[in-house]
Every structure is written in structure tokens, then in C-alpha cells.
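Memo to structure team: turn this sequence into C-alpha cells by end of day. - J.P.
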Amino acid sequence: MKRSLVVTVVLALVAPAGADGPPPADGEQAQLDDIKPVVAKKKKSGKKRSRRRRVQPPDFDVTQTAAWKYGQMTQAECEAEAKTRNLPVTSEPTHGVMAGVRLTGPIKGVTFRTRLSDEQRATTPWEIADCRLVLALDDFADVLVAHDIVEVRHYSMHRVAPKSWPAGKVGSQHYGGLAIDAAIFITSDGTKLDVNDDFFGRIGAKTCGPDARPRKKTEKSVALREILCETASKRIFNVILTPNHNRAHRNHYHLDVTPGAKWFIVD
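Reply from structure team:
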């Protein structure tokens, strides 16, 4: 009983509210072709758990960051901003999502999509996002364009909440359509930067900063790090998790906007 209590307290301290929802069902996920999911296995007692680094640097005003501003927006404010930016979205009210929208085209030349067929993409919940996440993706696209990325293939943005989810409750992370699991980045010449194959991380290793480096230095591993760390420096997302975080994230970057958060995680 003691061990169970300790684990519960640790998780409460390190995990933001509304942790990742369950991955898509195996049968549905198989349709994503070359993107292969990894389902986290239950850890045995005594083994080290992955950690999240929560940072609130004292040298800047968190309330001036993009992540904070987007997280504070109301549905009306976000939709007005999306319209001002001429973002390619259509409204799609969704259970658990404050301002559900679906992307109908690329953002600044960058396509964010699953590997589902066009017909399936039109109805899958995985391609629904909260409007606030789309604003963050618009900023993210600036970084991607600078690295010649024209397409990002992801596992999901929104994930359907369980049947017990209260009516009217707005979710966070995937349940709220506020997170994206980006797996493969494709350049204009068709080159694929695959997080699963090319990141070369290690659980517990530093992700960004002067001492951070991949296990194997290649052109692709360097490019993936540069994209990620440039994005982190812009404070577009509150949470950035990579293969360095745990096994469940070994094949994608988890990026999310956390409303009200005055901290940032890069792990």
C-alpha cells in the first residue's frame, strides 16, 4: 500500500492535468502505413520512471509567450485570430474540445496530416484540433518552412474522451485537441525525417542545450534536433516530449498548449 501511495504522489507532481489519452485502436492505427505506434508497457516496480523537466526561466515574462497567450484565449478570440491569419480551417464542434476545427489545407505551405486516405481524414477525430493548437501550428510552420519541411505526418491531435467524460467539460492535451504527436517530417524533395528512426535519443538524456547531442550524429538527427530546439526557444508549446522522455514517445514529438500554465517542459 505504501508503494502505491508514493507512485501516485510522484505522478501528480510531474504530469500536467489531462495527461495523454490512449493511443488509437490497433486496427485503426494500422492504416497509418509506415508510421508504427509504440504502446507503453506497464513498468515493473523498482525501475526508474521517466521524468519531465518543468522550467520557468526568470529572465522573461511567461505571460508574453505565444503558448500563454493562446492558452488564455476564448473560443471567440481564437476564431477571430484564425480568421485574421486566414488559416484554412472549418468549425467542427467536438465533445471535450473548446473550439473544435479541422484543417482543410496547408499552413504556410506545410501540411499537417495523418496517413489516412482523404476520405477517412474528412471524418477521423484524430485530425480535429482546438483552434488554439492551430494558432500554435501556424507559428510552428515558420520554423518548419525555414528547414524546408512541407509535410508533417502525425498520429493524432484530438483523441476521443471516454464515455464517462462529463458533458460540457473541456479537456486538455489530446482529449481537448490541444496536442499533436508529430512523427515524420518531409522536406520538399521527399526526404523523410522519421523521429522513430532518426532521432537517436536516450531516455533521460538532455534534449536541447549545449550539452545535448544524439547518440548517433547524422544529417537527419541534427535536423530533427534543430527543428525541435528552435521551436522550444520560441515558447509556442508548453510541453515538448521526445524519445528522451520515455519509450511511449520514441517515435514522435508530443507538442501541446496547456492553458494557464506558467511553465514549460522540454524532455
